[in-house]
Design brief:
Elements (H helix, E strand, L loop, with lengths): L10 H17 L8 H6 L15 H9 L32 H4 L10 E7 L7 E7 L17 E3 L10 H7 L10 H4 E7 L5 E6 L39 E2 L1 E3 L2 E3 L67 E2 L1 H6 L18 H4 L14 E3 L3 H5 L4 E4 L7 E3 L5 E3 L1 H9 L19 H14 L8 H15 L1 H16 L33 H9 L6 E4 L6 H14 L7 E6 L7 E6 L2 H10 L3 H13 L4 H8 L7 H6 L40 H7 L3 H4 L18 H19 L12 E8 L3 H14 L1 H4 L17 E3 L4 H14 L3 E8 L19 H6 L2 H5 L3 E7 L17 E3 L4 E2 L2 E2 L5 E4 L1 H10 L6 E3 L1 H13 L5 H21 L14 H13 L10 E5 L3 H17 L7 E5 L9 H11 L19 E5 L13 E5 L10 H8 L4 E4 L19 H16 L115 E3 L11 E3 L21 H5 L5 E4 L1 H8 L18 E3 L13 H11 E3 L21 E5 L6 H19 L1 E5 L25 H6 L16 E2 L24 E5 L15 H5 ...
Parallel strand pairs: 10-12, 11-13, 14-15, 17-18, 17-19, 19-20, 20-36, 21-36, 25-33, 26-28, 26-29, 27-28, 29-33, 38-56, 44-45, 44-47, 45-46, 50-53, 55-56, 55-57, 57-58
Antiparallel strand pairs: 1-2, 1-4, 2-3, 4-5, 6-9, 7-8, 11-16, 15-16, 22-23, 24-30, 31-32, 34-35, 37-39, 40-41, 41-46, 42-43, 47-52, 48-49, 48-53, 50-52, 51-53, 54-59, 58-60, 59-60
């Protein structure tokens, strides 16, 4: 596509260019002229227009005929035949006399003057003409250019370049050489009355010589918007700018942003841009300027405009750096595109100025009969200034304010540029806007309609280029955080709509003046001939301009003009403008786009109902010389007993068709009629139900859930969880126990049924418990889907009521197809059906319901992404891409083929694109549109389309005699569609076919089309061949019974009443679906869709949503293994052939040609009737190549083409199975309709019998005829396409016997599902969609996203190709605002832009990709997750250390409510530890116990993380962590309106304890709401005590015992919310926390009382916490007793119990006995448990009570359980602090402190009771807790692996010290190394280690025997027991030598003595006289591995002698 003239001197122009250059240099002493040769060499080429000719052919002709002087001899040319020769009239018969035209408004182009011409034959009158003033002298008689340029004011013909020619036209009838000086006599002007009168004579003065010509011209060439040069990138600002000095002026150009810009220097405006310094290669030059080469007035001398002294702007050789250019202030004024050079207020230059621009004008009268005369309805675009009032026939003129709005928005600067005071940044001036508008209109093609978006982008680009440096300066501070990389104001490198070789006007420091504007605009318009007319200089007002325009229109002088631009530049007034659209095509398109879609459909209905369309239908009924469609149909050979589907009265006027205006000429063809054959071919019914005829490859896959849908469902779930996890508390997932939902769909019956079908088959209802598993009725599912019509109101109201009454159910409102109804309810009438979504989903009840979540689902989310959106950007879920770098991320078996892939197929270029237009159809439509200007284009397009289908059906069926002539009256595309539809079902044994979709938005037109096609089908006898379905959104599917039976057979449905309700169920049904409705409403289409015919859809509504949802009908899931075809040959079925077949094809074709095989005529459908005995149906050794293609679809045939040249089919084309038929059936083959040579008689029997083997089989096919010809053709190329023929030649393929390969058919449906459908579009849409904008995206993406939104500013960047979906969303959120009738327009609050609904999500994904299945799956997994949230992992382990042999004695009756203390004292104490968490500690010796042989399994340290658990659903009495939020808990958790959150006070509390040796200061954090539990001193409010109730008090809603919960590391996960567990009962709950954790616990639990441990306990274990709780409680008990005594009450009656509860207790259970005395367990509240225990009559007798730990096996056993027992208690204790006063918890202990405490408590004689009828469930919490201690070295804080052997060391040795408490090191050391320390004790239960006064864990292999040294203590009998070791830990005075002598030891038994320091260790050894029986060594002394300051512990070991 290089420059076709590059490097060639064009001799016809050499002299002209040379003259120009010399003239310019003479005129100015400052100009350095541009070299002549560069002007000639650097011409821009003339691009080809769509129809193959240049769009400027007429000017080329003139250019070619031009010479440099007038014709030499004068010969009066005879006037053309039939023209007018009357004096005073032009040859067109229009009156030119001044007397006749004096009062008429005349259209005088800018720069032209009205002149009176003297005619010899009319001495008393002047003829009026318009002459370019440059060719007339000024008042001094000078400066007239040689030559002539004039227009006829009669007929309006323009562009007369020779006076000779002009004089002929106006019938001057001269006998001498015509001279302008002789005959152009007078100036004409209008007087005060507006009459045209003779003025001053023209002063020729005889000075005919060379004046000082100053003209500037445009050179030839015309730019079309369809061309795109190579990628244009902006040049970096550091590149050198060029200075262009013109006529003493200095011009600053913009930095070149075109990488290869080459200039023609003979254009006055704009100045050229300097080519960039690093040009890459010889790419095609891009012209700059409006049209740097547009046709000038072609004479030798070019003049200057009188308004300007500037010349054309040649290149300057002076180069200045940018800074000096920018700082140059002395430059005189030339042109700029910006505002004025001085800073002006925005209001003064704005269009919105309120001051009147001019005095009121007289109204403009619209002529009568305007539409009838001109056959168009002009559109007036308001521009600058007020439009005059129109009167008269105003109904035939349309006025639009679109352009005015564009002007206004382009002058409203964004706020960012207004914050900097007097900014140098100014908006575009009015003049520059008008000039750019002219530039834009000039470059539009003849069929293109102006798009405001394109013009707006042109304005923006021009503005950006003029202020590039300032914009960058303002952008810098705001880029980081706010806008992101895409959203700043950037200059795009290219511009949509504007050819990229079209430069914009210059950027200088001086503005474009109003006086320069008209001639610059005329100069620009002159490049396109008459396409754009500018009325400027001679127009004094808009009124005058409009009047002239109407006059010219009525006179037919604007026949070739598409746009009239009226510019009024009166001195001292604002410039005014307007644009009148006068092109027929443009007027129609703009008029229809001014209707809303609903108004457009109403207009269509009106035209159909009032009979306006009847003329069209009558006109189209005839096929010219080929007859009449109806009469041809009547002659069709249909059985007489077959009734016509419609009566004659029904079909009177509506079943007519259009005559084709472009069709190939008739040529010779076969004349035979083959009715019987076609009847055999086209009635598959007799085999449809035959069980043998089944298709093994047919499968319906839409019911399956694909991996990507699972991924999207999980993404949805994660977003819901993110809402719940946020701190906003907008969604409390933990409070819901089930999910319910309602799916809202548009009011389409098919969409409704389709959603119901998906829902029913997905299993979601069963999963949610809404349906029984065996429920088989789809009707149940219909309750969950609602059509958004008037009946939806009651259904949603009931859901809201349900939601209010069921607060534990989460309701999901799924708003499917969410872009459909976004109208504001306040703007919609109740009967319109719109505004319902706003009314229902945005209502306050839905918004405030915390258990309703809204999910919007749409393919086109743009309208929901505005500045006022209700959806947070964080709540958007975008469908992921299944492929990344061609890698299948989700292992899909399908591959999505959507709009972007369709567009890609148009660019591949290797084959026919899947998306294309039908040029012959378009040409027929445009002809009829001109003929019927009043009819809506949809009526015309539909009528033509249906005629095409009717004729194609008639032609293909073969029922019409002479039907070979019919192909002329349809298009090749339609023929291919119909032929494919009819023949596909014959190729499959089950008669699977494919679907053809006709999209006809108007219901009335669709119904007419359905009736028409049905009638034609009926008369042709094709009712059994394919179905015709009318897709009316408001009605259910209606399908013939025989087709329903077919579908039931395929889907194996037994139900007799079943009917298909969705299009998906029509899979493989051969049918034409006529889909109506203003827009698709989410209907999914089956995979058998093969053709998507959108030729009728409107081109008027160019919004992104509207376009993409129509294209989305063709979206498709193709098989992943077959990649989307790049050359599918859309009319063919793709054949997966092997390489040998492919490679062998061409040779066969060549041989076929060499053999001289002649072609069958393809003008006639090829019929084959059997002739008995002629052909053997099974030839053994014949084969055909599969390289054949049914290319009938796209052969574009020109009328002149009568012969088709034989060409080879290249092997790169796609292939198709040869057509096949069973041997008993004939198989006609319908071929393409190109012309070919006559055929010989022997070739008339091409009956085809093919036995294709399986696709993987490489054996060749067999056929009975040596013929198989298929036509392949290429459409849409300007030259006529060549029909390519192929023949297959019979070749030997080995011996294939007939028996070896029986014939079978191949299913075209199977091949079809691996190839997306073909898409036919209107030409205008096709051009828009396939064009790209500056960012490389399709043009349609830059359109307004939806009708209901508007752009926030014109100053926006383009969408970028690199943007993700999220970034696109942010773009629309920044740059679009909702219109007032958009439902989000009301979503504004004071000063907030982010008024997002917290429970609203948006799922967006491309159409037909599977979003319904994804969100249904999401509902299922959400339900599962809620169940999972309501379940917790509960420790479920069997009790350990139970002896199987020992049968327990029943002490209490099984149903005893409370224990009897007397009986309890008789029960033996069970020393065994049964809690499974302690299965890794030393067992306690129990005399009667026999351990099992295998013992307890040894576990690792962290094994508690992997202990056995069960998932248990939370009961309503569960304890919760901080993640639980429900309304009932709010007050409990501190959300009390009476108190400020976190309002609590810190109180110190001091008490003394002997064991601690000093005063302890504790802190209580007491919330205000809990202060009533404490007593404070009256002076100063000091905390005195915690109030305790009396024993005698009883309150059913109160718990008497304070609950203490020690906790560490579990501020989030600890179960401290006891509100539900207590069932609302009042209780005192105190969290015991370490000092360093105080702040974080207070943050998470602001309404809980905290007891803060002293600082010294920061590193302590659980023993310290329990020790302090117990001692504090006893101290408080005494304080309360004394307080009571002071108050006069009894001291001993104070309640002495406290509860010690673990922080993981989650639920409580009780065991009752049923009627058969079997135990039954059920959940109970903690309140019930505690009140029962507190109510125990003899509770004061017990030291401690507890409950058992739950496990699932206790209740299942048949053994009678003892209701109460004495033994170890864990986790949940009711402690009597009064009775247990003398037994303390060991404050130093980290492990087993509860075992140690229970043993000492029992030995002290206190009763321990476990209530076995209650159990506590403990939740597994893997975080925090007192068991998680990290042993680390002192040197570093990083945990290192330290073995147990390193926990101790020899005293005074240099050892690695550990930063771990000494007690913990000792406990861990003894646990892990006791088998070395006590070797005799290992696995020796009968010889335990004696442990005095304490229990220490010596590991699971060692047994410990606990004894107490206290007097009167209860111990086991040790008589006869030999101990294998002795453990003395901190032995006190009660341990004496005499006490130890009571016990016997094995020889070699080990002694271990532990003390706090070395001296006390020696003292203990001496005091207890240990050396008498034990041997010690010096090396047996150890210490824990602590530094001296950490106070290590010491121990000594010895052996028994």
């Amino acid at each position: 596509m290089g420059n076709s003239y590059a490097g060639q001197l064009r001799t016809t122009r050499f002299e002209e260019v040379l003259h120009n250059s010399i003239e310019a240099s003479l005129r100015s002493n400052t100009v350095v002229p541009r070299p002549v040769f560069s002007q000639l060499y650097l011409e821009t080429e003339q691009p080809l227009a769509h129809d193959g000719r240049t769009e400027n052919d007429d000017e080329d002709d003139e250019d070619g005929s031009e010479s440099n002087s007038p014709p030499v001899p004068y010969l009066m040319k005879p006037p053309p035949e039939g023209c007018c020769t009357t004096d005073g009239f032009c040859q067109a018969g229009r009156d030119l006399r001044l007397s006749s035209l004096a009062s008429d408004p005349l259209d005088v182009p800018p720069e032209f003057m009205l002149v009176g011409v003297k005619s010899p034959s009319l001495p008393d009158n002047l003829l009026v003409c318009a002459v370019d003033r440059r060719f007339l002298p000024d008042e001094r008689g000078r400066n007239a250019l040689l030559g002539f340029s004039g227009n006829c004011m009669g007929c309006g013909e323009k562009g007369f370049r020779y006076f000779t020619e002009f004089s002929n036209h106006i019938n001057l009838k001269l006998s001498t050489q015509p001279k302008k000086q002789k005959h152009l006599k007078y100036h004409l002007y209008r007087n005060n009355q507006g009459m045209l009168v003779k003025g001053a004579p023209i002063s020729w003065r005889g000075n005919d010589g060379r004046m000082r010509p100053i003209g500037s011209s445009l050179s030839e060439g015309h730019l079309t918007s369809d061309e795109h040069p190579p990628n244009l990138a902006p040049t970096h600002p550091s590149h050198t700018r060029g200075n262009y000095t013109v006529a003493g002026s200095h011009v600053e150009p913009q930095i070149a942003d075109i990488s290869h810009t080459l200039i023609n220097g003979n254009h006055a405006v704009p100045p050229v841009v300097q080519p960039t310094l690093n040009q890459s290669g010889p790419g095609r030059p891009s012209a700059t300027g409006t049209h740097a080469n547009a046709a000038p007035p072609k004479k030798r001398h070019k003049g200057w405009s009188p308004e300007s002294s500037s010349s054309s702007l040649p290149e300057s050789t002076v180069k200045t750096p940018p800074s000096s250019v920018a700082l140059s202030t002395s430059a005189p004024s030339v042109i700029t595109n910006g505002g004025r050079s001085e800073t002006v207020a925005l209001q003064t230059s704005s269009l919105a100025s309120s001051t009147p621009l001019s005095p009121p004008e007289v109204p403009v009268t619209v002529p009568d009969q305007l539409l009838h005369t001109c056959r168009l309805q002009p559109v007036i675009f308001k521009g600058h200034g007020p439009l005059p009032q129109l009167t008269g026939n105003v109904s035939e003129v349309l006025v639009s304010s679109l352009l005015q709005s564009c002007y206004l928005s382009s002058q409203t600067l964004p706020r960012v540029y207004q914050h900097y005071g007097p900014s140098p940044i100014q908006p575009l001036s009015t003049e520059m806007q008008i000039l750019l508008t002219v530039y834009y209109l000039v470059q539009l093609g003849p069929d293109q309609v102006p798009l405001i978006e394109d013009l707006e982008q042109i304005f923006m680009r021009s503005w950006r280029e003029s202020h590039l440096s300032e914009i960058r300066q303002y952008q810098q501070p705001q880029t980081p955080g706010t806008q992101g990389r895409h959203y700043g104001i950037e200059a795009p490198s290219t511009l949509p709509g504007l050819p990229q070789h079209l430069s914009l006007p210059p950027q200088t420091q001086q503005p474009l003046t109003p006086s320069q504007l008209p001639w610059l605009a005329q100069l620009a318009a002159s490049s396109c001939g008459e396409g754009v007319v500018v009325l400027g200089e001679d127009v004094g007002s808009l009124t005058q301009g409009l009047q002239q325009t109407f006059t010219r229109l009525m006179e037919g002088r604007l026949e070739n003009t598409n746009y009239v631009v009226i510019i009024v530049t009166a001195p001292g007034q604002e410039t005014q403008s307007c644009v009148v659209v006068t092109g027929k095509h443009q007027c129609r398109a703009l008029a229809e786009s001014m209707f809303s879609p609903s108004e457009g459909l109403k207009e269509i209905n009106h035209q159909l109902s009032t009979g306006v369309a009847q003329d069209l239908i009558h006109y189209c009924n005839s096929l010219g010389q080929d007859g009449d469609i109806d009469s041809l149909l009547d002659s069709a050979s249909v059985d007489s007993n077959e009734p016509s589907p419609f009566s004659n009265s029904q079909e009177s006027a509506e079943e007519r068709s259009l005559k084709s205006t472009h069709s190939p000429k008739d040529t010779h063809s076969l004349k035979d009629s083959h009715t019987q054959c076609s009847k055999d071919l086209l009635s598959p019914k007799e085999t449809a139900s035959n069980p043998k005829d089944s298709c093994s490859e047919y499968s319906v896959e839409w019911r399956e859930v694909r991996p990507i849908q699972l991924a999207v469902a999980r993404k949805l779930l994660s977003h819901v969880c993110a809402i719940a996890d946020s701190s906003t508390q907008n969604l409390d997932l933990g409070s819901f126990d089930r999910v319910s939902f309602l799916i809202l769909v548009p009011p389409s019956e098919v969409t409704f049924q389709q959603t119901v079908l998906h829902l029913w088959s997905s299993g979601v209802l069963q999963e949610l418990g809404s349906l029984d598993q065996e429920c088989a009725s789809q009707n149940e599912a219909e309750r969950y889907v609602v059509k958004m019509d008037q009946r939806a109101q009651t259904r949603i109201d009931s859901l809201i009521q349900e939601a209010h009454s069921n607060s534990y159910t989460l309701y999901i409102l799924v708003h499917d197809h969410a872009h459909w109804d976004i109208s504001s309810a306040s703007y919609c009438s109740s009967d319109s059906g719109l505004g319902l979504v706003d009314q229902l989903l945005n209502s306050r009840q839905v918004r405030d319901s915390t258990n309703i979540l809204i999910l919007h689902v749409t393919s086109f989310p743009f309208a929901l992404q505005t500045q006022c959106t209700r959806i947070s950007p964080y709540n958007e879920i975008h469908w992921p891409s299944a492929f990344s770098n061609d890698v299948d991320l989700y292992h899909e078996r399908t591959r999505y083929f959507g709009v972007s892939e369709l567009l890609e197929s148009t660019r591949s270029g290797s084959s026919l694109p899947l998306m294309r237009y039908d040029s012959s159809f378009e040409s027929m439509v445009s002809t009829l549109e001109e003929r019927f200007p009043k009819l809506h284009s949809a009526v015309i397009r539909t009528t033509v389309l249906i005629q095409h289908y009717c004729v194609a059906l008639m032609a293909v069926s073969g029922r019409i005699s002479g039907s070979h002539y019919l192909h002329k009256h349809t298009s090749v595309e339609t023929m291919e569609i119909v032929q494919s539809l009819l023949t596909a079902a014959q190729q499959c044994p089950a008669h699977h076919g494919h679907m053809v979709l006709l999209r006809i938005p108007s219901l009335a037109l669709a119904a007419w089309a359905h009736r028409r096609l049905s009638r034609v089908r009926g008369q042709l006898g094709l009712e059994e061949s394919f179905e015709i379905i009318l897709g009316n959104p408001k009605e259910a599917l209606n399908i013939g019974q025989n087709f329903i039976d077919q579908i039931k057979t395929w889907l194996k449905i037994q139900d007799a009443d079943w009917i298909p309700r969705t299009y998906l169920e029509l899979e493989a049904l051969p049918c034409i679906l006529i889909l109506s409705g203003a827009e698709p409403l989410g209907e999914s289409l089956p995979r058998s869709l093969k053709y998507c015919d959108l030729r009728v859809i409107s081109c008027s509504y160019l919004q992104r949503t509207t376009l993409e949802q129509e294209l989305g009908l063709a979206a498709y899931l193709v098989k992943a293994e077959s990649r989307p075809p790049h050359n599918p040959g859309p009319g063919s079925d793709l054949l997966e052939s092997d390489a040998e077949k492919l490679s062998s094809t061409d040779n066969e074709e060549e041989e076929g040609q060499e053999n001289g095989e002649s072609l069958l005529s393809s003008n006639q459908p090829l019929q084959s009737c059997p002739k008995s005995g002629v052909l053997d149906p099974f030839p053994a050794q014949t084969t055909t190549s599969p390289n054949v293609q049914k290319g009938t679809m796209n052969s574009l045939q020109s009328p002149s083409q009568s012969q088709t040249q034989l060409q080879l089919q290249p092997s790169s084309q796609s292939f198709q199975y040869p057509q096949q038929a069973p041997h008993h059936q004939t198989q006609p083959q319908v071929q393409s309709y190109s012309q070919s040579q006559p055929i010989s008689q022997t070739q008339l029997q091409p009956q085809i019998q093919i036995q294709p083997l399986s696709q993987s089989n490489s054996q060749p096919y067999t056929q009975t005829s040596p013929q198989q010809q298929i036509v392949q053709s290429q459409p849409h190329r300007p030259p006529p396409s060549q029909s390519r023929r192929q023949h297959s030649k019979s070749t030997s393929s080995g011996s294939l016997s007939p028996q070896a390969s029986s014939p079978h058919l191949s299913c075209s449906w199977t091949r079809g599902v691996s190839r997306p459908p073909s898409l036919l579009l209107p030409r205008a849409l096709h051009d828009i969609i396939t064009a790209s904008d500056g960012s490389g995206l399709p043009r349609c993406t830059s359109f307004l996203p939806h009708m209901s939104v508007a752009w926030a500013s014109s100053f926006r960047p383009l969408l970028s190709k690199m943007m993700t979906c999220t970034e696109q969303s942010l773009y629309y959120r920044q740059w679009t605002i909702p219109r007032p009738y958009h439902m989000d327009s009301s979503n504004r609050t004071e000063g907030r832009n982010d008024n997002f609904h917290p429970r609203r999500l948006l799922l967006s994904g491309p159409p037909q990709v599977g979003k319904t299945r994804a969100y249904l799956h999401f509902l299922g997994i959400l339900s599962r997750m809620l169940i999972r949230l309501m379940e917790v992992d509960i420790y479920d382990e069997e009790d350990i250390n139970y002896s199987a042999q020992v049968e327990g004695v029943q002490y209490h009756p099984p149903n005893a409510p409370w224990p009897n203390p007397d009986i309890m004292k008789t029960m033996p104490f069970d020393y065994n530890i049964h809690d499974p968490k302690y299965d890794d500690i030393s067992s306690v010796y129990c005399p009667g116990y026999k351990p099992s042989a295998e013992g307890n399994p040894v576990r690792q340290e962290d094994v508690y993380l992997r202990r056995r658990t069960s998932r248990i659903k939370l009961s309503k009495y569960a304890a919760y962590n901080t993640y639980h939020h429900c309304e009932q808990c709010h007050q409990y958790l501190g959300f009390n309106p009476r108190y400020q959150m976190y309002e609590s006070t810190l109180h110190a509390f001091t008490f003394t304890h002997l064991l601690l040796g000093e005063e302890i200061q504790l802190y209580f954090i007491i919330p205000k709401s809990k202060e009533h539990y404490f007593s404070f001193s009256q002076q100063g409010g000091q905390l005195e005590s915690m109030r305790l109730p009396l024993t005698s008090d009883w309150n059913p809603d109160c718990i008497k015992s304070p609950i203490f919960t020690p906790t560490t590391g579990r501020h989030e996960h600890g179960l401290f919310n006891l509100y539900h567990a207590m069932d609302g009962a009042s209780h005192l709950h105190i969290l015991v926390v370490k000092e360093y954790e105080m702040a974080v616990y207070k943050k998470y639990w602001p309404n809980h009382i905290m007891l803060v441990l002293p600082t010294v306990f920061n590193g302590a274990g659980i023993g310290a916490a329990h020790f302090l709780i117990k001692e504090l409680s006893y101290h408080n008990l005494e304080l309360e007793r004394s307080r009571r005594l002071e108050g006069g009450g009894p001291a001993g009656d104070v309640w002495p119990f406290v509860i010690l509860a673990d922080d993981s207790c989650v639920m409580w259970n009780a065991v009752d006995l049923d009627a058969r005395n079997a135990p039954v367990e059920h959940a109970v509240s903690l309140k019930q448990v505690l009140q029962h225990m507190e109510a125990c009559p003899d509770l004061a007798h017990y030291g401690v009570c507890g409950i058992r730990k739950w496990n699932s096996r206790v209740v299942t056993g048949n053994k009678q359980q003892e209701p109460f027992s004495r033994g170890h208690l864990h986790d949940f204790l009711l402690l009597n602090v009064d009775r247990s006063q003398n037994v303390q918890y060991d404050q130093n202990r980290f492990t087993c402190h509860d075992v140690d405490f229970t043993l000492r408590l029992h030995s002290a004689g206190l009763l321990v009771c476990r209530f076995n009828s209650f159990s506590v469930m403990k939740k597994q919490i893997a975080i925090g807790g007192y068991r998680t201690f990290i042993i680390k070295t002192k040197m570093t804080d990083v945990p290192t692996s330290v073995g147990p052997s390193q926990y101790i060391c020899a005293p005074d040795s240099k050892h690695l010290f550990l930063a771990t408490p000494a007690q913990l090191l000792l406990e861990k050391y003894l646990q892990h190394t006791s088998q070395k320390l006590f070797p005799l004790s290992t696995k020796n239960y009968t010889h335990p280690v004696l442990s005095v006064d304490c229990y220490l864990n010596l590991g699971p292999e060692v047994t410990v025997c606990f004894v107490s040294s206290r007097p009167h203590s209860v111990n086991i009998s040790t008589t006869g027991l030999l101990f294998s070791g002795l453990l003395l830990c901190f032995a006190d005075a009660f341990v004496t030598p005499g006490f130890l002598k009571k016990f016997a030891f094995l020889k070699g038994a080990t002694l271990c003595v532990i003390s706090a320091d070395r001296s006390s260790l020696r003292q203990t050894v001496g005091r207890l006289e240990l050396e008498e029986e034990w041997r010690f060594r010096l090396s047996d002394e150890f210490q824990t591995a602590n530094a001296k300051e950490d106070r290590p512990l010491f121990f000594l070991t010895g052996k028994h002698i």
